[in-house]
Amino acid sequence: MARKACPSPAAIPATLHAFRFLFLLFLLSLRPISADQDYHDALRKSILFFEGQRSGKLPPDQRVRWRKDSALHDGATAGVDLTGGYYDAGDNIKFGFPMAFTTTLLSWSIIDFGKNMGPELKNAVKAVKWGTDYLLKVTAVPGVVYVQVGDAFSDHNCWERPEDMDTLRTAYKIDGSHPGSDVAGETAAALAAASIVFRSRAPSYSRLLLDRAIEVFEFADKHRGAYSGSLRFAVCPFYCDVNGYQDELLWAAVWLHKASRRRDYREYILRNEVVLRAGDTINEFGWDNKHAGINVLISKEVLMGRANYFKSFKFNADEFICSLMPGIAHPQVQYSPGGLIFKAGGSNMQHVTSLSFLVLAYSNYLSHANQVVPCGGRSASPALLKQLAKRQVDYILGDNPLGMSYMVGYGSHYPQRIHHRGSSLPSVEAHPAHIGCKAGSRYFLSPNPNPNLLVGAVVGGPMNSSDAFPDSRPFFQESEPTTYINAPLVGLLAFFSAHP
C-alpha cells in the first residue's frame, strides 16, 4: 500500500512537449460529450461502498447487508473504546492515517459539490460522520492519538472475514514522547473539514469537531516528528510516511483557517510556508502528500480577491495544473495510451481520483474568478480542466481500451475477483460457521468470482501505463479497493452528475 515516487526520467524536448500539448487540445476538442455514463448511479454506488468498509456495530439502516458487526472489542486491551471507523482497503486493519485523509476528502467533496449530490447528500454526510465519530474516539485522551488498531503482519498472514478475525487487535498510539505530526495533522484536518460539513446540520457536533481539531493540531505542532519513526514496526511498510510530516501541519492549519477564520492560523500558514515546504512535490496529492491540496485550497481565497497575502500558493497551484497537462507534464506524470493518468507506485487510481479532484476544484475556483492558468505561453481554461478531469472519470467508468468499469457493480463489465477479504469469502449469512485464518486461503486462490458484491468499490487499476489489468486477487496493487480512492471520486461524480 505504501508507495514511493519514482526517479525522474530524462526531460522530454520542449518541442515535443509543445506538440503533445497542442495534440491534446485537438483531441479534447474532438471528443464528444459522453452520454454513456450514468453519473448519478455511479455517485450512489461510490458512497454505498463506504458502508461495506464499516467496522464495529452496524446501524439498522445498513444497506450492504452481507456485512455484519465486527471488531466489537477494539481498544479493550488499552482500556479505551476504539470501535467503529473504516477498514481502509481489503484487509481488516484500521489505519488512522488513510482513514483521516478519507474523511477530509469526503468532507471537501461535500463542501464543494454537495449541492450537486441530490438525494445522495444525506448518505455522503453519514459516511463522513462514521469517520468523525471514530476520530473523536481516537483523540478522546488529551495528548494521545490512537493511530492504528490491529497488527498488520498477523492480519496479512490470514484471509479472514472481518466478522471472524481472531488476529491481534493491538491499539497503537502516539503521544508526547512518541510523536506523529503527520497522522495527527491529518486527523486535525479531517475534524476541521468535517466541522464545516456539520456547521448548519448539527451545530453542537460541529463545534465539538472544531474544538477537537484545534486540540489535536496543537499537539501535532508541539510534538513534531513522523509517526513512522515512533511506530515503524507497526505502520511500515504499509502506511510509512515517505514524504515527511511538514505538509500535514500546514494542511491542518489551512483547514483550521477555513473552518474557524481565526487570524492566528493565517499567520501560522504565512510564517511556516517556507519552513514546511509549501511548494514541494507539486504534482503529488494523497494520504502521504498534501502539497498540491494545500495550494489549491488556499488559492480559492486568492481568486476570490480577499487574501492576496497567499498569492505564492496560487503560483504553486498554477504550477501544479501545468505539471498535469499532457504534453507538457512533469516527467513523473505519464498518460497511458487510453488517456489515464499514470504514476509509478501502486494502486494507481488513488492518483487518478485525487489529482482529478484537485483539477476540478481548481477549475471551479478559476471559473468564478474568470481566470485561466498560464502554462508556458499557452493557457489552460476552466473548461479544458473540467474536460481533463471528466476524461479520467469516464475512463474509470468504462471509457477505456478494455471497455470495463473499474467500479464494482457499475456497468456490465467490472472486476470480479477483487482483493478484499469480506467480498471474496462466503458471507456469514451463507456460511454461519467460523472460517479460520488459513481456511480462507482457498477462497483467496480460487479462480471463481467473489461471492459478495462490494458495490461501488474502485480498484487500484491498470498494472502499468499500457492499460492492462489482471482481474486477480493476488495482484493486490491492481485489484484492491481503498477508501481513499473513492473519497475524492464522490466529489467528481457529484459534479458530473449535475454537469454531464
UniProtKB/TrEMBL annotation:
Residues 39-493 form the Glycoside hydrolase family domain. GO terms for molecular function: cellulase activity. Gene3D superfamilies: 1.50.10.10. The keyword Hydrolase applies. Its EC number is 3.2.1.4. Keywords: Carbohydrate metabolism, Cellulose degradation, Glycosidase, Hydrolase, Polysaccharide degradation, Signal. InterPro entries: 6-hairpin_glycosidase_sf, 6hp_glycosidase-like_sf, Glyco_hydro_9, Glyco_hydro_9_Asp/Glu_AS, Glyco_hydro_9_His_AS. The active site is at H419, D471, E480. Residues 1-35 form the signal peptide. The keyword Transcription does not apply. SUPFAM superfamilies: Six-hairpin glycosidases. It catalyses: Endohydrolysis of (1->4)-beta-D-glucosidic linkages in cellulose, lichenin and cereal beta-D-glucans. GO terms for biological process: cellulose catabolic process. PANTHER family: ENDO-1,4-BETA-GLUCANASE. Belongs to the glycosyl hydrolase 9 (cellulase E) family. This is Endoglucanase.
